[in-house]
Amino acid sequence: MNKKPYRVIGKFSRRRDGQAKVEGREIYVSDLTLPNMLFGKVVRSPYAHARVKRIDTSRAEAMGAVCLTPWEVPQVKYNERSGCSPKVCYKDRSVLTDTPRHVGEAVAAVAAESEWLALKALGQIEVEYEERPAVLDPIKAMEPGCAQIWDKILLGDEELKIENNIAVNRIIKEGDVEKGFKEAEVVLEREFKTGRVYHNQMETKSAVCLPERDGGLTVWPTTQTIHNTRILLGEIFGMPLSQINVKRMPSGGHFGSGAHVNSIIPICAALALKADRPVKMVHTREEDMYDHCKYPSIIHLKLGAKRDGTLTAGHMKVIADIGAHNTQAYSLLGVMAGWFVSLYYLPHVLVEGKAVYTNKVPACAMQGFGNPQVTFAVESLMDELAEKLEIDSIELRLKNYVGLGDTFWGQGPTVKSVIRSCGVEEELRKGAMLIGWDKRSRPGEKKGTLVRGIGVGRGFHTSGAGAPQPGEIIDYSGAFIKINEDGSVDVITALMDQGGGTLDGVAKIVAEEIGVPLSRVNISPADTRTTVYDVATHATRGIYCGGGAAHKVAKQVKKKLVKLAAAFLEASSKDILITPHDEIGDGIISVKNAPQKAITIRELIKRSHQKSWGTIAAVDSLRQKSCPPAFMTYFVEVEVNTETGQVRPTRVVMGCDCGTVINPVFAEGQLYGGFYRGLGFALLEDTDYDLTTGALTCNGRMTDYKLLTPNELPDANEFKCFFTNTKEPTGPFGAKGIGEAALNPVAGAVANAIYNATGIRFTELPITPEKVLKALREQ
Contact, 719 vs 672, CB < 8 A? Predict the structure, then answer.
């Protein structure tokens, strides 16, 4: 496909915040200091399940500290993920609780003049607990007679009884799965398990809250969603949204941990309102690790196929251990069904999902929201199915993938749309050629201490959660754009940049559309009072949805600019041309076939201002009616040390279909980052629990929670990256998402490569050296 040449889109440009970040001058929430500010700390439960009988704060208060107990905060049950529709909003959260249900849950809080004094006051608060039975195994949790974690919660405003610790039970089907398996000539089924990975973002969660003199509240949080933060605080504290202002702050990464409103934010707000002074709270790494993690899963997967490789049916059973609180489990089970049915065409499908409460850290969205878990299972079983059918693994994928013109479910059964751009075949064909697929050895054929194998894994992620009809998740964005009195442009958006350059991409889209040099476009500081609603930077929606909204508004601004120019130059609007001129740092407006009629944007706006003709500006919202898949394929070569069990990737080929590439350097960075996090998910990362106490065995220390280092990655010249020649017709200048798609297929590709090297299939993540050695010995 021939793409239109663009001026700034697809070209490298430096990050606007890059220099400040590398020099350490960027200001994050934890860097903020306000006059008369207090420092807050939290009393956290040492028990996995308990009832608070008594809290004595007298000694802390005698030190001058402001203390807060569960009986002093609003008695409002809420869901931290306020971006869901009410019918799927399960509410079991409190600002502080007198019944902690996991180690580390907040039961009281304190604020004092310094962080040292707050810690000292914290130690003076006495809490008397009555310990209750803890349930740490999701399978045992569902057994009749097992201790109940919750008896009842709220679903919307209605009371919901919880039985056998099952938070959600969801069944989704299409066709007749029994008929499909009867038509199959080969049927395979396996059980797959994935771990409780910690998000491990560089910046722990923080909040600064300032009570205003008019009774309002200003909040500086670490979050992916300033508007949902505002909405939830209004719900909890009974304040009109006009009195709450939430500021957009630079982010040290979230990976999904800020798609909801973290527990620290309402606690900080409550302390500030009681103290009537600004309060700052910053999670320690241990507190952060006790606050959120990736959804662990047990997936029982069954696929049926005919001898020629045509898939006939698929049956997936999912058990998701959601921990002590239900952040978004109903949606999770829906999207996991969507990931399953949208990878390969299954005429008959059945998905049975259960989300189970346990006395562990609450799980939430993390880089793929169930997609890496499902894709690992599907890509592993497809690889095994190809071997069983004696069909090349790539050919089996090409025969069955859901692609151009097909309907895919995207983020679940309520989010269906037609695929209008697809680079799957190019990814598989070109990737196979670059890795040398046809030269790979047979599984387990190589012997010795170091054995190598090549595996493939493909997947996708949606660009947002849009569909022709709105689904279970609220999904729309907005933007406000104005041309300043000197012809420069301000873009005001609530869209969050998590570190991947999303806002730089928005600036490129606006500059490209209006016709001004990129240097003349500014992304303004933003808060909830100066921006229109944006749901969150999640679901790989930043460029497609947030950038799409900015593109829509930029078109309106350009239309007004053209109309003004036509009047000034005495020409028809259809004859007006706008051409950026980088040498003079401005856009030149001219008339077609009349080159003598020309003026710079700066001069036109200056004269308009002097004549009091008004400001050119526009504001609007956009709900994308599709969520086009960004397709991703990995070919990975691994080296397995048969004496130590260590697995190390040696070569990686990455093929990506994200439509029009906005900035190739940032896009490649997303692929490298996605591979790194996917590799950690596959080989190393997990949070283990002491099954007697419910505490993390790593004790919240990064010295014990291991991460991959550069030594475990291939050399830089062994990475090969390419983007497919595609363009998404519904995206801004043909762009789709990229972020989560870059992670989802990694574990499947790595597991398949390990099988090719050793002849052993691994169905449980992470695939640690201990597991590899054990399997080699058993082999």
Answer: yes
CA 416 vs CA 22, 121, 127: distances in Å: 42, 54, 51
- Bridge partners for 352 per DSSP: 171, 317
pLDDT at 83: 67
CATH architecture of 32-132+202-253+258-289: Alpha-Beta Complex (3.90)
What angle do the packed helices 329-343 and 371-389 form, to 10 degrees? 30
Distance of alpha carbon 648 from alpha carbon 637, whole angstroms: 9
Q: Where in the chain is the domain with CATH 3.90.1170.50?
A: 32-132+202-253+258-289
* CA-to-CA separations, 759 to 190, 442, 738, in angstroms, rounded: 17, 9, 33
pLDDT band at 585 (very low <50, low <70, confident <90, very high): confident
Question: For residues 397 and 458, what is the distance between their CA atoms, to the nearest angstrom?
Answer: 9
Residue 1 pLDDT: 47
pLDDT tens-place string over residues 93-115? 999 999 999 999 999 999 999 99
Digit-coded pLDDT (tens) for 171-205: 999 999 999 999 999 999 999 999 999 999 999 99
In the chain, the percentage of residues whose pLDDT exceeds 90 is 90
Residue 684 has pLDDT above 60, yes or no: yes
Q: Is domain 18-25+476-622 classified as CATH 1.10.10.10?
A: no
Contact 26, 101 (CB under 8 A): no
With a cut of 50, say whether residue 607 has pLDDT above it: yes
Question: 158-161 and 126-131 as β-strands: parallel, antiparallel, unpaired?
Answer: unpaired
CATH class of the structural domain 293-468+626-778: alpha beta
Cα→Cα distances 663→554, 556, 670, Å: 19, 24, 11
For residue 447, give every residue at least 6 positions away whose Cβ sits within 8 Å of its Cβ, in sequence order, or none. Answer: none
Q: DSSP code of 165?
A: T
Instruction: Give the span between the Cα atoms of 226 and 586, in whole angstroms.
Output: 33
| Pair of tokens at residue 505 | 């991409």
Q: Which amino acid is at 661?
A: V
Q: Tell me how far apart the alpha carbons of residues 246 and 238 are, in angstroms, rounded to a whole number.
A: 16
Q: Is the per-residue pLDDT at 699 higher than 80?
A: no
Start and end residues for every CATH 3.30.365.10 domain found in the chain: 18-25+476-622, 293-468+626-778
Q: What is the pTM of this model?
A: 0.96
Give the model confidence (pLDDT) of 705-743 as tens digits: 989 998 899 999 999 999 999 999 999 999 999 999 999
Question: Using N-to-C axis directions, what is the helix angle for 746-758 and 664-683, rounded to 10°?
Answer: 60
Which of 585, 159, 554, 633 lies closest to 382 in space, CA to CA? 633
**Does residue 698 or residue 127 have the better pLDDT?**
127
Phi and psi angles of residue 680, each rounded to the nearest 5 degrees, phi first: -65, -40
pLDDT at 110: 98
CA 24, CA 423: separation in Å to the nearest integer? Answer: 39
Residue 617's H or E segment, with its range, is: strand 617-622
Task: Show the CA angle centred on residue 670, arms to residues 669 and 676, nearest 5°.
Answer: 90
pLDDT (tens digit per residue) in 58-73? 999 999 999 999 999 9
- Local confidence band at 5 (pLDDT 50, 70, 90 cut-offs): confident
Q: Considering only CA atoms, which of 80, 40, 70 is closest in space to residue 235?
A: 80
| Count of residues making up the chain | 779
Q: List CB contacts of 343: < 8 A, sequence separation 6 or more.
A: 374, 375, 378, 401, 402, 458, 459, 460
> Which pairs with CB-CB distance under 8 Å and at least 24 residues apart come from 116-122?
117/39, 117/63, 117/64, 117/65, 118/38, 118/39, 118/40, 118/41, 118/65, 119/41, 120/63, 121/41, 121/60, 121/63, 121/65, 121/67, 122/41, 122/42, 122/43, 122/60
Mean pLDDT of all residues belonging to the chain: 95
